[in-house]
Specification:
This protein has helices at residues 13-26, 44-53, 65-78, 91-109, 124-135, 144-147, 152-161; strands at residues 4-8, 29-36, 58-63, 82-83, 87-88, 113-115, 140-142. With 167 residues, the chain is α/β, with parallel strands linked by helices. The longest helix is centred in the middle third of the chain and has 19 residues, at 91-109.
C-alpha cells in the first residue's frame, strides 16, 4: 500500500517546498489540501496547480467560506471574541476547521500522516497538533517547516532545484 501524507497547503514557499521535502523524507505521496476560508489572495485553482507542479500526487481545494462564517466567525462575533482585546479573532479560528478537513481527507485517502506548514515560533503549531490529536489520533503529524531546519534561502534553493515555483 502506498504511504500518503495530507498536507495543509497554503501555496506559499514553505508549504510548496514541504511537498518535496515530505516526499524525500518519507517516501510517501503528498496530497495537498488547500482551504478557502475567505482569506482572499490567489484563486485556489492556481494554488492547486502549483501544488501539482511542486510534486503533489493530488491536490484538493475546499471552499469552506460558508462553513467558516456560520460555524466559527459568527459565534465569535456574537461573543465579542477579540485578539489582544483589540480586533476580531479570525485567523486562529480557521485552524480547527482546517484540522477537521485534514482529518477527513486523511481518512478518505488512507493517509497515516498529515502535515502542516507552521514554524516553531507561534501558536498555530499547537492548534494543528492538538486538534489532530483529538480528531485523528491515529495519524502521525509532520511539521516540515519547523523540523527541516531550512532557512528561507535554503527553501528558495530547494524550490529552484526542483523547478517548484511558489508564486
Amino acid at each position: 500500500m502506498t504511504k500518503r501524507v495530507v498536507l495543509a497547503y497554503s501555496g506559499g514557499l514553505d508549504t510548496s517546498v514541504a511537498i518535496g521535502w515530505i516526499a524525500e523524507q518519507t517516501g510517501a505521496e503528498v496530497i495537498a489540501l488547500a482551504m478557502d476560508v475567505g482569506q482572499g489572495g490567489e484563486d485556489l485553482s492556481v494554488v492547486r496547480e502549483r501544488a501539482l507542479a511542486c510534486g503533489a500526487a493530488d491536490a484538493e481545494v475546499v471552499d469552506a467560506r460558508a462553513e467558516f462564517a456560520e460555524g466559527f466567525c459568527l459565534p465569535a462575533l456574537r461573543a465579542n471574541a477579540l485578539y489582544m482585546n483589540r480586533y476580531p479573532l479570525v485567523s486562529a479560528l480557521s485552524r480547527p476547521l482546517i484540522v477537521t478537513h485534514l482529518a477527513r481527507v486523511a481518512r478518505e485517502r488512507g493517509a497515516d500522516m498529515v502535515a502542516h506548514g507552521c514554524t516553531g515560533k507561534g501558536n498555530d503549531q499547537v492548534r494543528f497538533e492538538v486538534g489532530l490529536a483529538a480528531l485523528a489520533p491515529e495519524v502521525t503529524v509532520l511539521a516540515p517547516v519547523r523540523d527541516s531546519g531550512m532557512t528561507r534561502d535554503k527553501a528558495i534553493a530547494f524550490a529552484e532545484e526542483r523547478a517548484c515555483r511558489s508564486t
